[in-house]
Amino acid sequence: MTPAASSFQLDRRTAVVTGANAGLGQALALALAAAGADIAAVGRTPPDATARSVAALGKRFAFIEADLNDSGGAGAIVAAVLQTFDKIDILVNNAGIIRRNDALQFDEDDWDDVLNVNLKSVFFLSQAVARHVIEGGRRGKIINIASMLSFQGGVRVASYTASKSGLAGLTKLLANEWAPHGINVNAIAPGYFVTANTAALRADEKRNAEILARIPAGRWGDPSDLAGAAVFLASSAADYVHGVILPVDGGWQAR
Predict the structure, then answer these.
(1) Tens digit of each residue's pLDDT (9 = 90 or more) over 139-153
(2) Would residue 254 count as lying in a domain?
(3) Global confidence as pTM
(4) Backbone angles phi, psi at 107, to 5 degrees
(5) Is 255 a member of any domain?
(6) Domain of 37?
(7) Secondary structure of residue 67 in the 3-state scheme
(8) Which residues are known catalytic residues?
(9) What is d(CA 14, CA 139) in angstroms, rounded to the nearest whole number?
(10) Per-residue pLDDT averaged across 22-31, rounded?
């Protein structure tokens, strides 16, 4: 293996991935496992299919049950991971929820639920992992999953847009503070992907056609399209990459 190729390997590293039971989170977990990382999946329900696929790749897997609407559990999540693995090297903050309504009708519960999961829990879990990494004197990688709505406003998704715009800013803030400690904080901003969250858009013939017309690649993204970006940002190949919001969007923003 050439030195360039070996810099993308994640052997002997442990990656914590939130929301890894399906869709983008599952694809991210499998990409990191295929590159050599053991996986600790955090969420409310056991990601059995992800666990089987990680095991088939010959890597270790642990499920950490947690409600990410409660940011106070971040320390307990790290402690639970460390009961199975001796360290945490990579954190992927993927879990997210969305609520849709006109801004004039948007209620406080839908605002709070989305901000708690998509932004508040991301900060406190990142903080807990960063403390662990710094105390161990090692390098660490944190990858946040942003959105096209980190750059744009969207419609009828007030709390989601606020959370993903905030996540972009938080990514840069943490990169500034933690780069001196050997922690790289970056984000991936997926474009329009085939996931449960986009089912309604894909089912709307008019909206689906409008979206595809703007994507130079001419198709919706498949979750596996995130694999290369995730492995890059998690690996030593990205040791000098800090505070980047990397679009993986089929060219959406270029148009």
Answers:
(1) 999 999 999 999 999
(2) no
(3) 0.96
(4) -105, 165
(5) no
(6) 3-248
(7) coil
(8) 160
(9) 12
(10) 97
